[in-house]
Amino acid sequence: MSDPLSRLLEIMARLRDPDGGCPWDIEQSFETIAPYTIEEAYEVADAIARKDFGDLKDELGDLLLQVVYHAQMAREAGHFDFEQVARAIGEKMVRRHPHVFGDGQVASAERQRVAWEDHKAREREQKPGNTKGAGPSALDGVPLALPALMRAEKLGKRAARVGFDWEDVSGVLAKIEEELAEFRAELDGGSAERQAEEIGDLLFACANLARKAGLDPETALHAASRRFEARFRHLEKALRAKRREAKSVPLAELEELWRAAKAAEKTASYNRSNDQGGR
To answer: What angle do CA 21, 25, 31 make, to 5 degrees?
Structure first.
């Protein structure tokens, strides 16, 4: 039997074969598969956040399938194949790690991060179409398709690399206060378009606050959403025990149940920490 990766490539080629393949798979294109690729990447991140390594193994397989899928479609169109994808990323890793595969040296992980970004910047400049004098930007290469919060954080990082940044967190906090004041002003009689602009500026400033504090805003917001969901489900469970529905309960009582949910969450977290410490 062939090795697992070769077998996966053979399976995908068979699924896409116009002669007896799967009708659904045959109909797909780069555009129709791209949303699944994004979804699978998020499911990998979710499994990591939950520390579910059995699930992580499965999700990594699903993500690998996405790479194989795109490579198969590219091979059919005569663009490239999976072997070229694997070879290119291998060469890129060697090129970007001269301190491992060559005679380069880096003093720390932070210096390596800076060197990595420098390598990427040079590669972007050398790509076809990026000719000298064509007006390269420090913001080149930040994909439009990224989630909005993640893209805002990456744009802020790129600008910071060339010195366009606040000196410390206090500067970003002042910017957030400024943007919040502008949003409040637009709420009082401003157009929906202006309100959207100001809330966008506020969110962008919050993304920069997370970046400046060394945090990932996308990950932080996902975690906040998970906490909100867990607390709200706890609230709903408490109401069901009383045979009541949230829409018929006064807001003050809902707030009380919400605080109880937060307290229960903290207790559960404390107990988990003690259990892990005692092992």
So the answer is: 150
